[in-house]
Structure formats: structure tokens, C-alpha cells
Amino acid sequence: MLRIFILIVCNACLFAQDFSFSNKIKTILNSKCISCHHQGGYSPVVLEKPADFKKRKEFIKHVIETNIMPPWKADSHYRDFANKKALSAEEKQSILEWLKKDCPEWSPNTSIPHYVNGSQLNRKPDLVLKMKKTFHVPPINQNVYICYKIPYELKQDTFANAIEFIAGNKQVVHHASYQVLEVDEDVDIYSGPEYFRFDEDTLNRVTDEHDYRFFNLIGKSGNFPRETYHGGWLPGSGTQEYPNSIGIRIPKKGVILIRNFHYSPTPIEQADLSGFNIFFSNKKSNRTIGFASFKPKNPGGSGDWLIKANDSAYHAQINVKFHQDISLLNINPHMHMLGKSFKAYAITPKGDTIRLVNIPQWDFNWQEFYRFKKIIKIPSGSVLHADAIYDNSAGNPNNPHHPPRDIKFEWGMNDDSEMMRLVLLYLPYQEKDETISLETKKDN
Ligand code: HEC
Fold first, then answer.
1. SS3 67
2. Pocket residue to mutate for ligand 1, from 43, 49, 68, 365, most atoms within 8 A of Cβ
């Protein structure tokens, strides 16, 4: 009798121990893998339950050991970020151990994450907005650019701390740059067409005024819409998220205007229904996040706007002087397929270097809006430098041309061109901003 009793007790304690280990793993997998690998999520590969991991155990071990997954291209030694997806050495070790043990089950009582509507956040979106109609990308094997209006109304002005673009059809959505716009009371946001299509040649000539008139967004008194937020999405980029104290104002009546919605060339017709998840904040904020996009003035250092075939180290730079104190929130480097590396930093008037971001091995598929752990103050008079290197040799496995061809730099957006952009999301500086943490988990 005593013997049986002891056995039962030991079994129970063994089980409890097993669950505590796999429950710990579940917490890591939840934020580092399942956020993208859930049903309807970013990746078509569903990894939700221990059995899903067990089935692909060897392959998962490989992608973790080689740092292919989770995707994270920024050098964490140069600058660490609040939205870092990469695993810490400890997390990696624990997952590998769990795989080695054949992916033991976690406790059935652990909470089920809420990854709703393709979101990468474990929260239910408060407002889900979608394109009104499916857009059919024509089978013309050319880039297609549209400007799309999504109107919405709320009971009152509301604040959000996260906004997420959900690409409907990831095979063709190349990128999207969007604005949240407040309009006058008398504007009929539902009138007029949903979108217009433009081509590369007119891209730089499409003005704000043209777009606002086209969508009937100008008030009777002639007021233009007011931008309360400007965001972007690129392949691999996650949710734009902020602490409640910063917040994004979502005006009571407005539109999200996807100003530059780019679809990649496709030989067969593709349907897309993209949209947004918006997560409200419990605090008001009187600060408006600014958006600045920089491009190189003097590529190649010699005015040479051509990346010659077989040039494995074409260099381009951005140098910009700041004339006011800036509080940096977020940084996004951008290049296309020939990109090799990208580094950005600022030199203050005192000569100090502020490291911003370093991507030692550029990967077009994984582009991110890197959010700093704390706000970074860039003092007035500082110069922002960005150095990009491109590899147009046959040695670049992503080179779209075999053999390599001369490629135009900063001229058009197709496979025969390359580009360099550096986008910053920022606030005008206020005292003590540099003490504000941008790690949202703390106050969400
Ligand atoms: C930011 C979103 C994201 C995160 C986080 C992420 N993945 Fe992925 N993963 C993807 C996408 C998207 C693909 C598909 C890539 C493709 O098709 O080229 C993928 C592909 C994979 C594949 C290859 C599937 C196949 O059969 O080709 C495996 C295995 C994988 N991920 C495992 C993981 C594991 C394990 C983690 C966590 C340690 C993780 N991923 C984290 C987005 C993510």
C-alpha cells in the first residue's frame, strides 16, 4: 500500500516537472514562433501544438541553429531593439533541449493565444479595416501601383498604440505606405471611387492635392485632410507598436489612404484583399509621430547612377543634417535584391557617434521597422549617415539577372533598378524623452 502511494506521488511530481519545462518553452514559442506560424498567420506553415513541431523536428532544429528562424537581420551587438525577434542564447538552448526530448506536451491549462485576423500580436484588434473590394492584380508581368482609400468612422477621437498592415496576398504585395487622415465633418468619406492606378512614370508627379481631390477628401471650406500617422509595410515587417504614452491618434472620422500600394509583376491574375488591425490604447496622447524618408543624393560618390554588371561593392550614402532635436522611435532601411549591407549612425555636434542600425547581410524578404528599446535623442546639428553596399556580381544568389546586367540606381522600381531609402519615425524632442522605454510589453 505504502509502495503504491509513493509511486503515485512520484508520478505526479514527474508530470508537474515536465509541464513546467514545456510551459516555459510554450511562452518562448508563443512570442518568437507562433506569432507568425498560427492558422491564418504570416507563414502558411502552422506550428501551434507540440505535435506540429514534432513533425518537423529536424528541420526546425536546423532553422534555429542556423538563425534562419526567427528572421532577424539586424546586428544585435551594434544596436539592440525592442521588437527583436531573434532568440537569446538561453531561449535557443531551451528550445533545442525541448526538441531533443521529442517536444513534450505543455499543460492543457495554458492559455490559448489570441492571434486574430492574421495579427502578430497576442491581442484582439479593436478595429479591423479592409479594402472594400478585392483588387485583381492583372496578369501583365509588370509592377502595378495603386492608391487605395479605406474610410472609417468612430464614436469619438481614439488613440491606438499599435497599427498593423495585413497583406492579403503575400505573393504579390510588394510594399505599402499609408497615412491615417483626419477629414472635415462635411466630407463624405464614402463618396467617389475606392482607388486609382498609376504607373511608375507618374509616381513622382502624383501630388497630395491630386489624391485628396480624387477621393473627395477636401472640406467645403477648402481644408485638406490632416495626417495623424504615416506607416509602412515591407516583406517581413511586423506590427508598428508604441507605448501608450506615445499613441497614434485615430480621428473620429477619417480614412486610411494607402498612398503607395505596390504589387509585384505576376504572370497569372492574383486577388488581394489587404487591410489593417488597429489596437486601441487606454491613454490619450497629444504627440504626433512624424515620418521622414531619405534617399541618396550622390550615389557612387561620383554622380554615377549605374551599378555596373559584376561590381560586387557599389557604395551609396545618405548624409542629412538635423536642424532640431529629434526623438527617434523607429528606423527602417530599404534596398532591393542587390543589397548587401546597410549601416546607419549619427554624429553629434560634439563628435559622438550614435549607432542606429547595422544589417550585415541584407535580405529583401525580411525588412523591418526596427523600434529602439528607448527613445534616442538626436541633438540638433547632428548628421545622419547611412552607408549601403550593393553586390551586382554573379556571386550574389539574389541577383535577378544571370549573367549580371548594368542596373539603374534610384531610377524606377523594376528588376532593372535598385534603390536606397532610410525611413525614420520620430517625435519632436521633449525633455526626458530619452528615458522613455519603447518596450511595449511593460504597459500594454
Ligand atoms: C516574423 C514572422 C516569423 C517568425 C517570428 C518565425 N517565422 Fe518561421 N517562417 C516565417 C515565414 C513567412 C516562413 C515562410 C518562408 C518562405 O516561404 O520562404 C517561415 C518558414 C519557416 C520554416 C520553413 C517551413 C518550410 O517548410 O519551408 C520553419 C521550419 C520555420 N519557419 C520555423 C520557425 C520557428 C521554429 C520559429 C521560432 C523559433 C519561427 N519560424 C519564427 C515567418 C516567421
1. coil
2. 43
Q: What whole-number distance in Å separates Cα of residue 438 and Cα of residue 79?
A: 14
pLDDT tens digits along 345-385: 999 999 999 999 999 999 999 999 999 999 999 999 999 99
CATH of domain 127-287: 2.60.120
Query: Which SS3 state, helix, strand or coil, does residue 384 take?
Result: strand
- Integer Cα distance of 229 and 109 in angstroms: 40
Does the beta carbon of 331 sit less than 6 angstroms from any atom of ligand 1? no
Tell me how far the alpha carbon of residue 255 lies from the centroid of ligand 1, in angstroms.
33
What's the CA gap between 108 and 270, in Å, rounded?
A: 40
This prediction's pTM: 0.89
Fold (CATH) for 292-442: Jelly Rolls (2.60.120)
Nearest to 304 by CA among 215, 408, 184, 199: 408
Rounded-to-integer distance, Cα 35 and Cα 40, Å: 11
Q: Are strands 226-233 and 173-182 parallel, antiparallel or unpaired?
A: antiparallel
Spatial separation of the C-alpha atoms in residues 250 and 160, rounded to whole Å? 7
Residues of the chain with CATH 2.60.120.230: 292-442
DSSP 133-148: S-EEE-SSSS-EEEEE
CA dihedral 230, 257, 137, 264 (to 10 degrees): -20
- pLDDT category of residue 8 using cuts at 50, 70 and 90: very low
Predicted confidence (pLDDT) per residue in 208-254, tens digit:
898 999 999 999 999 999 999 999 999 888 899 998 888 899 999 99
Task: Please tell me if the CB atom of residue 41 comes closer than 6 angstroms to any atom of ligand 1.
Answer: no
Residue 229's SS3 state is strand
